[in-house]
Amino acid sequence: MRARLVTGVLVLLLLLAGCTGGGPAEGGRITLRFQSLAWQQESVKANKELVKEWNAAHPDVKVEYVQGSWDSVHDQLLTSFEGGEAPDIIHDASDDLADFAYGGYLADLRGLLSRRLKSDIPQRSWQTTTFGDGVYGVPFLQEPRVLIANAGRLKKSGVRIPTPEHPWSWREFRQVTKQLSGDGRYGVAWPLKEPVSATLNLSLSAGGELFHRGADGKVTVRFGAPDQVVPRTVHDQANTDHSASPTTLGSGGSDTLPGFFGGKYAMVPLGFSYRQQIAQQAPKGFAWQVLPAPAGADGLAQGVSPQTLSIAEDSPHKKEAAAFVDFLLRPRNMVRLALGDWMLPTGTRALKDPALHTAEDGWATGTALAAHLRSAPAQSVRGYPEWKDKVATPAFQEYYSGAIGLDELRHRLEKDGNLVLARYQR
């Protein structure tokens, strides 16, 4: 009877061990699950190649590549966290980490990361993944918003071509778009299907803050004059100057490309990675160039939410997972990931790589903007997703379309918005 009981306990323990993710595999080998959100062919290839290289050099710590999706990552991760089935290494974006960090689902990385990695990535980037007293992700890829311009049309118009050293001001940008408009064509197409992050991130250049944290730690919304520079520019271009296409205000970035290639729009403000689509889809002979976004009182400052790598708090092999992250983000490897995603690395050594300083496809212009990138204004604001979806998005959409004025926009963002945020700060 005793023998049967012992045998039964051993069987149960083996079954439980088999149900635990990230545990030792056959022969004592550890298996780590790395969920990647890479989706472009070049990016997926780079990630899988790096996993293969790690596995070849580390026979006792195998990394299993798991394909995730940006479209469903938040809900999928929440389900996996609550079900105890989260991957060991998690690819996400910094603006999606706050609730997971405060909820205790992500490991604090301060004691896990190598000295090299911590010193190579600037503090301004680490701020995007710092919540409270902990660091819950490694920011490794970032994407400024730039102006993609029809080079031939700009040259023909005779307007001054901006550079990172001498960018357009927001006022000058408005004048240029007026000069480039007429005969059914527009100086700019703003793809603002999701207007909030684009507006807030670009508003940093004008000194905008919007979210103000008091001594008690509570956040309130104040839509002051610096916060109004960018929204007023877009509104006036679309409704007063008629230099911005009104039909693209509800469109995504890719939706504007056919009109851009067809000459309907001279410029489109887009994320830096859109250059890949443009390089692949532009008609033969179509000349395009990358320009910096306009500058304001705070120069070229711009908010970003970098892509991140985190480690699950429930992972039984955090040190091994951190070692893989360190390998993945060595300078040479970070460059490979950046080139695969057509984005910028956060690492200072990677940013110096000659491949990121070529004039071709605007790499040099983007790299020159890296030092101006800051943490997106809403990174650590609890309740931001609800504020964005229920208050800010419809308010900005109505303002940009001309349905409401600036005073009504301010009223909604502040009064209605602060009521939402207050529920998360009690």
Task: Give an account of the 3D structure.
With 426 residues, the chain is of the alpha/beta class. The protein contains 18 helices and 16 strands. The chain has helices at 2-19, 41-57, 73-82, 98-102, 115-120, 123-126, 151-157, 170-179, 195-203, 225-239, 257-261, 275-281, 318-328, 331-341, 348-351, 363-369, 384-401, 406-422, and strands at 30-36, 61-67, 89-93, 130-131, 134-135, 138-142, 145-150, 186-188, 211-213, 219-221, 265-271, 288-292, 302-304, 307-311, 344-345, 373-375.
Strand order of the largest sheet: 2-1-3-14-6-15
Percent of residues in beta strands: 15-25%
Which ranges are low-confidence, i.e. pLDDT below 50, for 5 or more consecutive residues?
A: 1-23
Number of strands: 16
> Which outline best applies?
globular
| Average pLDDT level | 92
Radius of gyration: 24 Å
What is the secondary structure topology, with strand pairs?
Blueprint: H1 2-19, E1 30-36, H2 41-57, E2 61-67, H3 73-82, E3 89-93, H4 98-102, H5 115-120, H6 123-126, E4 130-131, E5 134-135, E6 138-142, E7 145-150, H7 151-157, H8 170-179, E8 186-188, H9 195-203, E9 211-213, E10 219-221, H10 225-239, H11 257-261, E11 265-271, H12 275-281, E12 288-292, E13 302-304, E14 307-311, H13 318-328, H14 331-341, E15 344-345, H15 348-351, H16 363-369, E16 373-375, H17 384-401, H18 406-422
Parallel strand pairs: 1-2, 1-3, 8-11, 13-16
Antiparallel strand pairs: 3-14, 4-5, 6-14, 6-15, 7-11, 7-12, 9-10
Helix pairs in contact: 2-14, 8-10, 9-10, 10-17, 17-18
